[in-house]
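Q: Given only this backbone (380 positions), what sequence would you predict?
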């Protein structure tokens, strides 16, 4: 299979769906860790198609959602300085901190720019030598190599007015934190395929061994998700807590060594706070001391953020798999994409945004509009 359509072909989806359903004898609780997978499950009607046989819960795999409110407050504080240009990916702009968002700061006159890559921010700094350009570097192991590369490039080019406000996080420690919750119900995981393209997946071996749950590295297309779920169910049904890679077209066991070297050169592993979830041991990356000139926290003397609660937002319960977004009392009334109370309603990878967009009311097999719809209707 080479082309994307083949991963959405109704006949293949129907066949895979039937295989999955044949193999289930009880309603297992499976967590997809990545927000991109959550959106795909909802958008293509898979969650609804499997509702009666599997409980799919959606984990802490949205980087925007897990960035603490304090980190956003720090970004807003920097953006308000007249000598600073705050550069960020667009997704972060609407996420509320405790004192508003970067978008509100921009409306009030702060110089907040959207960039598509951290390297764009280095170029911006080179063009604006009298200003300080701070890139707001958030995200998982997928985006950390790019911010590391930007730092290396800034040093190489002698761009001294560039720095990064870092909040990079690591996926596996967050899965570990979920498993260690006293009320954890998760019995199997779909691991985020794109993160594994960087990190590889061998490190999940110890996780599987320790927690005795299956982990299946899975992609994002409907057929990827169905094959990943089918394998996870098979491992659960046969009592085999093992590690599998169902995304071999993108993920190698060793990952991407070049990207890993970039991360290792600039960052070191640390305990960092996750929004709503608190401090997660080894849950993030901070800049090594030899790169502290490019660390905005050092340059602007900002203390490290501490764990923050999320007010009335139930995002921690959503990301731990305790509830689904519609079970939050604010979902769809006080909290909507236009009036977000919490980050998961803002982010393009947030679980609450996915439910609001694709599953506000039950989707019948007749009304399902994703590519699985023909299969659900018995067509194709
Ligand atoms: Fe938070 Fe809104 Fe989601 Fe509730 S619906 S958990 S308030 S983002």
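A: Predicted residues:
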């Amino acid at each position: 299979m080479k082309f994307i359509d083949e991963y959405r072909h109704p006949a293949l989806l129907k066949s895979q769906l039937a295989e999955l359903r044949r193999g289930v004898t009880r309603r297992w609780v499976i967590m997809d860790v990545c927000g991109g997978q959550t959106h795909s499950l909802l958008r293509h009607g898979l969650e609804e198609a499997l509702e009666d046989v599997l409980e799919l819960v959606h984990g802490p795999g949205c980087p925007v959602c897990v960035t603490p409110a304090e980190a956003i407050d720090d970004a807003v504080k920097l953006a308000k300085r007249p000598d600073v240009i705050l550069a960020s990916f667009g997704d972060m702009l609407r996420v509320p901190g405790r004192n508003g968002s970067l978008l509100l700061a921009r409306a009030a006159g702060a110089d907040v720019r959207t960039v598509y890559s951290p390297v764009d921010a280095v170029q911006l700094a080179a063009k604006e030598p009298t200003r300080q350009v701070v890139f707001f570097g958030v995200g998982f192991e997928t985006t950390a190599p790019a911010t590391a590369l930007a730092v290396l490039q800034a040093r190489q080019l002698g761009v001294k007015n560039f720095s990064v406000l870092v909040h990079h996080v690591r996926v596996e420690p967050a899965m570990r934190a979920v498993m260690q919750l006293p009320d954890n119900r998760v019995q199997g995981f779909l691991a985020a395929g794109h993160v594994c393209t960087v990190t590889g997946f061998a490190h999940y071996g110890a996780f599987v061994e320790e927690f005795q749950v299956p982990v299946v590295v899975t992609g994002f297309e409907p057929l990827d998700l169905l094959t990943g779920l089918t394998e996870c169910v098979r491992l659960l049904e046969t009592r085999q807590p093992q590690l599998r890679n169902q995304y071999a077209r993108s993920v190698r066991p060793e990952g991407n060594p070049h990207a890993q070297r970039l991360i290792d050169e600039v960052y070191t592993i640390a305990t960092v706070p996750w929004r709503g979830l608190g401090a997660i041991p080894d849950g993030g990356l901070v800049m090594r001391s030899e790169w502290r000139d490019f660390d905005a926290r050092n340059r602007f003397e900002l203390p490290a953020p501490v764990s923050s609660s999320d007010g009335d937002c139930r995002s921690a319960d959503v990301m731990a798999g305790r509830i689904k977004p519609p079970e939050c009392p604010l979902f769809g009334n006080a909290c909507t994409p236009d009036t977000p109370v919490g980050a998961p309603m803002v982010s393009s990878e947030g679980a609450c945004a996915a439910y609001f967009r694709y599953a506000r009311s039950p989707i019948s097999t007749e009304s399902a509009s994703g590519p699985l719809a023909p299969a659900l209707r018995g067509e194709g």
